[in-house]
Amino acid sequence: MFHYDEVNNLLTCPAGVTTKQSFRDHNREISVFHFPMTECGKCPRKPECTNFRDSRRTVGISKVNKELREAEDYNRTEQLKKT
Question: Is the pTM of this model over 0.70?
Answer without folding.
Answer: yes
